[in-house]
Task: inverse folding
């Protein structure tokens, strides 16, 4: 009796989550579009000021003014980045399905973060299943997801630790990607919230809290699921399970 109850609960949760995501997505897209134009104008004007100030080397306080203008440009760029994330989040493009080499995608993304990781004394351990079959999925979306998880993992570690990436055949119809870290872990009361849009424990100005909700949306649309295990102070492991093909997913659950 226990298993079906758990499944129903999961289904409800997922439905609620996707409705929440849809509503927030629409709202965000609207706001994001409106804010994009004024932001572009502020950026242009600041650049213009910057050029003017560079010509006015004799002007009193020119250096300070230039510092301020640089700040304005940096903060505008940060806003633009947030807007881009929001739009990505809202856009929800339909997956473009093709044969995908999961190990290859993971390795590409790992190489992107590895330099910075090494700098922070973080070791990345690869445990790829060399026999992993190709899956039918969306490569660019998977890249985005993997990068998000790797970024979260290294952020949770800060300095000195290990990120382990495992791939394996989960059963006849699906593959698992496990990304585990020896980072700060997630408090029990936060575990339920981490997939919520805008939930973040990062200090103000550092995170939008959209990473995991974007990943969650993408993986659901690809017919997969994400589970998480975490111990506060010890680390976290996220498991992404993806169907070998959409047909096998339909077959397995329908
Ligand atoms: N590997 C991890 N270890 C510990 N906590 C994590 C991990 N991954 C996610 N979290 C928690 O989940 C929260 C939400 O993650 P999410 O990726 O959605 O947003 P974020 O990383 O805070 O911000 P953003 O992704 O926009 O930079 C994080 O703030 C953190 O509290
Ligand atoms: Mg994140």
Result:
């Amino acid at each position: 009796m226990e298993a079906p109850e758990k499944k129903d609960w999961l289904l409800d949760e997922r439905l609620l989550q996707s409705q929440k995501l849809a509503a927030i997505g629409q709202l965000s897209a609207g706001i994001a579009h409106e804010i994009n134009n004024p932001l572009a104008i502020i950026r242009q004007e600041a650049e213009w000021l910057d050029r003017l100030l560079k010509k006015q080397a004799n002007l009193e306080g020119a250096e300070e003014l230039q510092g301020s203008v640089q700040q304005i440009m940096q903060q505008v760029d940060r806003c633009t980045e947030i807007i881009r994330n929001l739009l990505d989040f809202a856009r929800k493009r339909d997956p473009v399905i093709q044969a995908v080499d999961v190990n290859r995608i993971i390795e590409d993304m790992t190489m992107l973060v590895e330099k910075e990781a090494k700098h922070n004394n973080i070791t990345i351990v690869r445990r790829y299943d060399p026999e992993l079959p190709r899956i039918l999925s969306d490569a660019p979306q998977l890249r985005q997801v993997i990068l998000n998880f790797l970024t979260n993992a290294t952020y949770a570690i800060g300095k000195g630790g290990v990120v382990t990436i495992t791939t394996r055949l989960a059963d006849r119809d699906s593959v698992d990607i496990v990304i585990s870290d020896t980072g700060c872990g997630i408090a029990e009361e936060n575990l339920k919230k981490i997939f919520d849009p805008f939930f973040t424990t990062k200090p103000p100005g550092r995170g939008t809290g959209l990473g995991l909700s974007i990943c969650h949306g993408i993986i659901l649309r690809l017919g997969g699921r994400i589970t998480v295990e975490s111990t506060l102070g010890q680390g976290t492991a996220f498991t992404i399970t993806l169907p070998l093909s959409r047909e096998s997913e339909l077959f397995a659950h329908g």
About this structure: The first strand starts at residue 98 and ends at 100.
